[in-house]
Amino acid sequence: MPFLYRWRVMLSPIFSVVCGIGCIETFTVSSRVGMCSLNFIMSTMFFLYRPSRKVFASVLLLLLGFGLCACTDNKSGRISVAVTIPPLQNWAEQLAGGRVDIVCAVPDGGNPESYDLPPSAMVGLSKCRLYFSCGYLGFERSWLGKLSENNPRLQVVDLSEGLELLYGTHHHEEGHLHDGEAYPDPHIWCSPRLARRMVETMYRALTEIDPDGASVYAENYARIDRRFAQLDSVLTDKLRPFKGKVFAVYHPTLSYWAADYGLRQLALEPDGKSPSPQYLRAMVDSARHVGVEVVFIQQEFDPRQAETFAREVGCRTEIINPLAYTWSEEIMRIADAFIR
């Protein structure tokens, strides 16, 4: 057997294994299948045919480079963590202090009730070890099962677990459990008081998955908790004179925020659908009766019906963004807009 051929026979399975390991460690389930199949075909051709010295060297370097790069990328030591919405991204980044990579599933401007995850985003999410969810957002109910199936290592942390959840404020057409109970209102991040407990859960999960960063996480958590406690204190003092007052909102995002400070929310969107003219007329009558002075409109929704409502009631409109990355500033801005 010629020398070159003997080395080809010996090296082909070795580089096949190297590349296979790279595929397994680096790519999603579907990508692994494709890349490993390609590697098998290349290795088989390399074994069966007698390439020239130049082809031999080229294929050898290609296989070696791919195998080493694939393995090296996974050995960077970085942990990837996913969240559903930008406010959670903000909190996670503050907690992590740069120790982990944070991936936000629903981008700024996306609607977490109906967002459809593009295939390109699946690649980044498939590499995550943790996923912090709000618990009952439409996106989470539709996609978390698929993400877990695609990435068996993914640990989903439900930040709503153990919290006092509100029912009957946020219905959608599909929003019913098998036992007949409606899903709870998912907008827990809008409450500064619940936000403190959510960040605590995030802190404990990060410490568990990355014990070496425990001191960093503990220091950052203490700082965030102090800021959130101060925000709650300021809002309590600011909104105390308005206790019992009613505001209108297009989508019922502010249920927990209202509950924190003794306010009442009148939602224009029934059951996750655009209000009918009859329903809108009934809401106008209710708003006039209770003295609504402001209607909040989330920036991701069409404002026309809320503007019509405001004209009929004689109240002002305020555009808000509870999904803003700058969460603390937006929560304070909503309070200022309410009392303006």
List descriptors.
single chain; 340 residues; Rossmann fold; 3 domains; 4-stranded parallel beta sheet
What top-tier CATH class of the largest domain fits best? Alpha Beta
Q: What is the global morphology?
A: globular
CATH superfamily of the largest domain: Nitrogenase molybdenum iron protein domain
The percentage of residues in β strands lies in 5-15%
The total tally of domains equals 3
Radius of gyration: 27 Å
Rounded mean pLDDT score: 82
Low-confidence stretches: 14-49, 53-75, 171-181
Which bin fits the share of residues in helices? 40-55%
Helix run count: 12
Task: Let me know the number of strands.
Answer: 8
Q: Within the largest sheet, what's the order of strands?
A: 2-1-3-4
CATH fold call of the largest domain: Rossmann fold
What is the string of helix and strand elements? HHHEHEHEHEHHEHEHEHEH
Tell me about the largest β-sheet: 4 strands, parallel
> Structural class per helix/strand content?
alpha/beta
